[in-house]
Write the C-alpha cells for this entry.
Amino acid sequence: MASKTSQKLKANKAAGLGSLIGYYPAGYPTLDDSVEAAVTMCQNGVDVLELGVPYSDPVMDGPVIQAATLVALENGFKLKQVFEAVKRITQQVDTPVLVMTYWNPVLSYGVEKFASDLAAAGGAGLITPDLIPDEAKEWLQASDEFELDRVFLAAPSSSSERVQTAVDLSRGFVYAVSTMGITGARKEVDQLAKQVVSSVRHASTEQNTAVGIGISTADQVLEVNQYADGAIVGSAFVRAYQDGGLEALKAKVQELSKPLRK
Amino acid sequence: MSNLRDQQGPYFGEYGGRFVPESLIAALDELEATYNVAKKDPSFQHELAELHRTYTGRPSIITEVKRFAEHAGDVRIFLKREDLNHTGSHKINNVLGQALLTKRMGKTRVIAETGAGQHGVASATAAALFGLECVVYMGEVDTERQALNVARMRLLGAEVIPVKTGSRTLKDAINEALRDWVANVDNTHYLLGTVAGPHPFPQMVRDFHSVIGIEARQQMLDEFGFLPTALAACVGGGSNAIGLFHAFLDDADVQLFGFEAAGAGMDTPMHAATLNYGRPGVLHGAKSYMLQDEDGQTMDSHSISAGLDYPGVGPEHAWLKDLGRAQYWGISDAEAMDALRLLSRTEGIIPAIETAHGLAGALKLGRHLPAGSNILVNNSGRGDKDMETAAKYFGILDGAKDGK
C-alpha cells in the first residue's frame, strides 16, 4: 500500500529537497493551542508532522519535552483528544500526521481500537519509541488492517540484524536515532547518525530513513538531509513556542526549513 | 502445578518482555548473554558464594519470634533474617551478583534507582568494593524521608541525584536512571534493584535473591523438621518476596502471601496496592499490573514506606497472582507501623517499614490460617533508616523546645 508519508519524503528527495519532520505535543499548552501550533508548522515548512501524546513516564524525552507534556497533562489532556487533534489538523492541511506515543496509552486504549480511531481521524500512523518490533505483534496486525504507517527506531547500538528488522517492518520511514541519549538540542549531530543511516541503506535501497534526536539548527537540518531522507526536530520547536508562542514557533519552522527550499 | 520454579523470562505468562527504546536493546542482549554464561560458570557461582559467606554474612539465620506470635493467635512465626545482611537488607544479594556481571562486561560505572535507599546503599557498597563509579537516582521526596541512607551512600563514595520530576519518588527515579542509561550505556550498567524492568532483569534479580528461599527452606527442614504453612513478604517491586517464594513455588502445600502497601487504606485512593487495584499495562520496560488511569497514564502511589511506594510490580508476581499460586493482600500504613513497634517491643528487632508490611501480614494470616499453622516471614530489612519517620509517627522524640 502507498504510504502518504513515504510518498512525501520520496517526492521531496526527487525534487532535490530534503524533508523536515516536526514534533509538537498534543494538548500543549491546551488542545486548541496545539492544533493551531501544528497547523502553523505544517503551513510553514514542516513536511511531516509528529504529534506527541503526553505521557506520565516519557523515558526517551529530555527536559524540554518532559516539561511541555507535563503541562498538557496538568491542563487536562485526555487520550481521546489526540484523535480530535489529528482530525482538526488534517482537515486544514494535507501534511501527513504521525502520532508519537509511548506504548502504554495505546495498550490501555486497545491497540486495534487505537488504530481504527487514528485512521478514521485521518492520521498517517504511529512512531513508537518504546515498542520494538519484537513486541509489536498486535500493532503489526492493526497497522496492516488500517493501512497505517509504523515507524520503528534504529539506534547506533542496533545490530545489523535488528536494523534489517526495523527496515523490513517499518512503513513511512525508519527513525534513525542520531545519538545514544534522549531528546533535546545538541551542538553537533553525532557522526553516529551517518552510520545508522548507512546501515539502513545497506538493509534496503527503498526504505526511507529520517534522523532524529539532538537536531535544532538549520545547518543540522541541511547536513542531515545530505545523507538521510529527513531531519526530525522536536525540542527546538517546543522551546520556541515556550519562549515566544506561535510567532516564535512559526519563525523557527521557517528558519529550519528554509535551507531545504532553495 | 509443578515446575513453576523453572519458568524463565522474557515472559511469565502474558507478562514481562522488553518494552524499551531500541537504543537499550544491545545492552540488554549483552547483559542476558553475560548472565547466561556466568550462571553456568562454576567460578562465577563460587565467587558470588564466597562474597556472600565472607562479606554479606550468609547464610542469614532463622529466628522464631514467640512473643510476637502471641499477638497473631495460635500460630508460630519464623523470621528469615535478611536484616542481618551487610548493608541491612536483602538488596545486597542482587547487587553483588550484578556487580560481578558489571566487571565481566568490562563496564566501569553503575547507576541505580532507589526508593527507601536500601538498594542505593547496597549499590554504593558494591561499587566501593569493586572500584566502580556509582550514581544513584532517588526521588526528592525519598531523599527527605530517608536522609540517613542518602548520607550513607555519599559516605560510600556514590553520587546521589535527587529526582525532581513527576511524583519525585521511586517511579521517577527509575525514569531518570533509564535516561542516564540510554546516554551512557557503553560504560554503564544499570544495576536495577527489583524484579521489574525489561528482560533479563526480572529473572536475573529473582535468581540472585532466590538464595533467600533456598536457605530458608533447608533451614526450616533442618531446624524444625517441617516446611511452613505459609510464607509472608512485603511487595513493592517484589524482589524480597520472590526471593523467598521461589524455592517454594512447587511446594503445593506452602501458601504464598505478598503484602502490598495499602497506604491510607484499601478503601482510599492513597495506596500502592498494584496487584489489588491495578490492571495490566507496560511500565519501565515490562508488561505487568500497574496503577494507571483510564488513559494509561501511571497513577501516583502512596505509602509511608518509600520502598513500597511504587505503582508497578514485577511480572512474575503478576503471573503468580493470575495463576492463583500467590495471594496479595493490602496492609495500611497504620497496620505496618503497629507491627513495626510490636516486633521491636516483643523481640528486640526493629524492622524496616517495608518489612513491617510483611510482619503485619503475618499477624493477619495468624487470624486467617488454621490453628497450629507456621508462618515464615521474610524480615527483609532493618529499620535504622526509618527512625526519623518512626519517631515522628509515634511522637517518641523528646522535643527540643521543652528541653527534656
In short: The first strand of chain A starts at residue 20 and ends at 25. The CA atoms of residues 58 and 66 of chain A lie 7 Å apart. The mean pLDDT of chain A is 96.
